Each structure stands twice: as C-alpha cells, then as structure tokens.
Amino acid sequence: MDSIRIGTSGYAYDDWRGVLYPAELPKASFLEYYALFFPFVELNYSYYAMPARKSLQSMLQRTPATFGFSIKAHRSLTHEVQPGWEAAARQYRQAVEVLAEQDRLVCVLLQLPYSFHHTPDNRRYLSVLLAALAGLPLAVEFRNDEWGGERVYDELARRNVAAVMVDQPRLAGLPAADERLSTAFGYFRFHGRNAANWWQGDNVSRYDYLYSDEELALAQGKLRRMAKSGTVWVAFNNHAAGKAVQNARTLQGLLEPLKADS
Fold it and tell me: What is d(CA 172, CA 56) in angstroms, rounded to the nearest whole number?
C-alpha cells in the first residue's frame, strides 16, 4: 500500500550481513544497497553526533530521488538539554534543512526520554523547541504515559506536529498503543516487546525481539486504519541481528495484497 511506507531505524549494522547485506559488501555501500529494498530510513546516528550538512548531502547523492529520510534530534535537544541549547538547535536545523530542500525529509524525530514528565517546565521547553524547528516536518515520541491526554494531541495538531505511535512492551508507565494522526502524516515505531530487558537493557538488548507473523498481521489492521487519514511511515527499531529487516519484509508482504486491491 503506497500510503504505508516501511523502513528501519538505522541501516549500518554489521550483524545485518547475511540478513540484508551480502557478506562481501563494503560497509560504505550499505546505504545504496538498503535503498534497493526500502523507501526510507530512520537515521539515528544524529542522536549521538550532531549531523553535518555535507554528510547528509552525500546520503542524498547515494540514494534515489524518491528515497526519504527521517532523522532523530540530537541528544542536546531532548535528553541532555543545557543552557544555550538554542545554538545547538540552529546548528542541527542548518544541517537537516538540506534534506528538506530536496523534498527528502520525512520528519525530524524528537524522541523524548521516559524522565521527560508532563510538568509546566517541560511543556514550556517542548513549546519553544517546536518553535525553534518550526517549518520542518516534526514528529514527537513520548516515552511515558503522562503525555497521553487529549489536550496534548490537540496541541500537537494545532502546531502541525505528528504524534509518534509505538508498539512496545505493555508495562506500567509506558504509553498505550494507539493509532492517531495529529497531522497530515503518521509515524509508527516498532520497538519490540522485550519486557524483561526494557528497563535494564542497553540500546541493543532492549529492542532484541522478533515479531511473529501473527503479531504483524494484527498490527497491519492498525496501520491500515491510520493510512485512511494520510501517509504512515513505519520504522522497525528491533535492529539486533537483523530482526528489523526480517519483520519489515514480512509486513511488506502482508501489505502487498492490499496494495494490489487499492
């Protein structure tokens, strides 16, 4: 289905050799090879290192004109905010605008930590952060359930900002699974359902989970309903050992008959 576009969170994983990449493929060619199979990628290196315009321009040149990029906000804007963060926001924006200029930017992904509670100070900060990045397509992922109220969704809709929907373990304090679109596009992330490692794992073991065909078959119904209101971008974040690739391909296969019928 053209209105549901499936990719993965990251692409440059050595343990994807034999799952997606041929064993002999140079790592420098991973992105071009990835783009043969998926319509977009979620860039996550930009959380750890401030992205540079030149490096993003190189990615544009190595991928088809129809290939899109979503890109995580740098941690200085979401997890490690310090006085003077506005300068970091300007630097980040100047880099990612090269994607927007070529109409290749799916969205800037603002992934907020579980510790980002629904307090007056945090609401004020989120408001000024969204204003600093206004004009770019933005998507906000809340990691705790304090942000699940109607007023939050209404405010995101007023600002034309997407609310990220997630599939993750059903644990107390985490947002419940939902299927909302607060703007013209939807963004859905599959984190896996590894409840045992969610609070104590690292950024590999926490998402080490392979969805079953039955779980994905049920999830496609939710995505189909979301897609009635706009394009839905789906990113699999369960990257360990290529599980994201396996699940993305399975979901693509489940949706192919729907595409033929649409």
Answer: 38
Count of domains observed in the chain:
1
- pLDDT tens per residue, range 43-68: 999 999 999 999 999 999 999 999 99
Both tokens assigned to 196: 């045992």
Residue in this structure with the two tokens 């053209």, named with its chain if needed: 2
- DSSP string for residues in 52-104: -HHHHHHHHHTS-TT-EEEEEPPHHHHTS--TTHHHHHHHHHHHHHHHHHTT-
Domain that includes residue 253, residue range: 4-261
CATH number of residue 10's parent domain: 3.20.20.410
- What's the burial of 184, exposed, middle or buried (CB within 10 Å: 0-12/13-18/19+)? exposed
CA 40/CA 13 separation, integer angstroms? 16
Which of 217, 208, 211 is CA-nearest to residue 238? 208
**Per residue in 98-126, pLDDT tens?**
999 999 999 999 999 999 999 999 999 99
Helix (H/G/I), strand (E/B), else coil: 234: strand
